[in-house]
Design goal:
Oligomer: single chain
Strand order of the largest sheet: 1-2-3-5-4
CATH architecture of the largest domain: 2-Layer Sandwich
Strand content: 15-25%
CATH superfamily of the largest domain: Histidine kinase-like ATPase, C-terminal domain
Radius of gyration: 17 Å
């Protein structure tokens, strides 16, 4: 198999119908892309976490989904999964330990995400297409991804505004977080949604 290691950023997008086979197709696609870009060390973790998020779109939404893989110039891989529901799963992206019910047949996806991903989050862009994007990043082996300083600053301001009584300030702060993530992290594909 031909692999071409490159330091240049790249992006792939896969559109998926609401179909029980979509998680497997997404998993296979992630593996193929990472193999061909010489990122085998991230392949299985990325495939597992992508499969978990795509499975959730099938189980919890009534529409299609899309998967976006983006490798930045630092070789950090970001996988974003968009679906039609604006509802973000409870605890997604929150700090703190996610606890899975050991007797449950499902519900371990967030625990896997927390244990395996370098960082993760969500975006509800509020555009006409609606929906949400859940994303995670995997740093190359030997390097842990750092959270974006702007994300940390904006999220702290949003949390402070949300705790106050001024709904307008809370809305503006939420819009600032969303705008930053869409424009600076998700790129032109997400901005067009």
């Amino acid at each position: 198999m031909l692999t071409v290691p490159t330091a240049e950023p790249w992006t792939y997008t896969l559109e998926l119908p609401r179909d029980p086979r979509s998680a497997g197709i997404a998993r296979d696609t992630v593996r193929a892309v990472l193999d061909r870009h010489g990122m085998e060390e991230l392949r299985e973790t990325a495939a597992l976490l992508t499969s978990e998020l795509v499975t959730n779109t099938y189980v919890h939404t009534a529409g299609p989904a899309s998967v976006r893989l983006h490798r930045d110039e630092d070789a950090t891989l970001r996988v974003s999964v968009w679906d039609t529901s604006p509802t973000v799963p409870a605890l997604f992206g929150e700090a703190g330990e996610v606890v899975a019910d050991q007797r449950a047949d499902s519900g371990r996806g967030l625990l896997l995400l927390q244990r395996c991903a370098s960082t993760w989050g969500s975006v509800t862009p509020g555009t006409t297409s609606g929906g949400k994007t859940l994303w995670f990043e995997l740093a190359p082996v030997g390097r842990k991804a750092q959270r974006c300083g702007e994300c940390v600053t904006l999220e702290a301001a949003r949390s402070k505004a949300a705790a106050g009584a001024d709904k307008f300030r809370a809305s503006v702060a939420t819009l600032a977080v969303r705008t930053h993530v869409v424009l600076d992290h998700l790129g032109p594909v997400a901005a067009a949604r």
